Amino acid sequence: MEKIQVNGISLAYEKLGVGAPLMLIHGFPLDHTIWNDVANLLKGDFTLILPDLRGFGQSTTVETLYTMSDMADDLVALLDHFGIEKTAIAGHSMGGYVALAFAKKYLQRMSGLGLVASQAAADTPERKANRYKDADAVAQQGVGLIAEGMTPKLSANAGVQSFVRPLMEGQTPSAVIGALKAMAEREGLFTYLSSVSFPVVLVHGGVDALIPIERAREIKAVLPSARLVELQGIGHMPMMESPRGTAEGLRLLGH
Ligand code: MLT
Predict the structure, then answer these.
(1) Is 106 in the pocket of ligand 1 (CB under 6 A)?
(2) Are 71 and 26 in contact (CB under 8 A)?
(3) What domains are there in the chain, each with its CATH number?
(4) N or C end: fewer C-beta atoms under 10 angstroms in the chain?
(5) What percent of the chain has pLDDT over 70?
């Protein structure tokens, strides 16, 4: 992978394809390789930029606290590196939280937003407290327990599970703890999202066990122009469980 030095980290990315730019941001605690199938389907339609978020995959992290907005800063530096003024951005789950933080801070740099198995709401107090408990547990016992707990919730598909589990187990405790705290402290951007004027596409699995389909339907209800692509029988990993359905949805960001 190529890397740039930015904000005290080394940020790794892949860039491929031709056409209008589309950045694809992975979720927690994964890396850009979850998009492999979708990237193959979209590389004839878009110039794809696939970062590993700070700490994940081949990117490094800092030990200090950071926010979704700091992660958006890393990504805007990537756009500057390529001389790209405006891009569509689609994020999976936590990647969607980063895409929303990016939209709020760098609205003029965005031509469209895709939320794949994601949401615009902040954490409930209970979810937030659980994130801090998980962060403590990871500090003491490592990332194995997160990988074990999340694998069945990500997807019921055995092939997907056997891909994501080792991917999660390979992440560093620092990255997982940093991202858990950043997710816990993120703001709700539901009201903000209801006022945006660029194209918004929501791709969501009908049986997502981590972020229920209702979260996407709520966005559609306040932003009727959003295109909601509901994928029946699909869980939290639509880009792996239904690459064609996901690619079709994301193609709408090119129109
Ligand atoms: C993700 O899949 O990125 C995270 O599980 C999202 C979350 O925990 O809110």
Answers:
(1) no
(2) no
(3) 2-122+187-254 (3.40.50.1820)
(4) C
(5) 100
117: left (phi over 0), alpha (psi -120 to 50) or beta: left
What pLDDT is attached to residue 255?
65
In angstroms, the CA 105 to CA 115 distance is 17
Query: Measured from the CB, is residue 182 less than 6 Å from ligand 1?
Result: no
Nearest protein CA to atom 9 of ligand 1, as residue:
94
**Does the structure show a pLDDT above 80 at 235?**
yes
The reply to whether ligand 1 has any atom less than 6 angstroms from the CB of 183 is yes
Record the pTM: 0.98
Side-chain-side CA neighbours of residue 90 (13 Å): 32
**Residue pLDDT, tens place only, 81-107:** 999 999 999 999 999 999 999 999 999
What's the DSSP call for residue 122? P
> Which one of 93, 164, 203 would you pick to mutate in the ligand 1 pocket, going by the greatest count of ligand atoms within 8 A of its CB?
93
Query: What's the gap in Å between 94 CA and the centre of ligand 1?
Result: 5
Structure tokens at 84: 């790209």
Q: Is the CB of 79 under 6 A from ligand 1?
A: no
Q: Which residues contact 49 (CB under 8 A, 6 or more apart)?
A: 13, 14, 15, 21, 22, 23, 24, 78, 79, 82, 84, 87
- Beta strand pairing call for 200-205 and 9-17: unpaired
Q: Is the CB of 12 under 6 A from ligand 1?
A: no
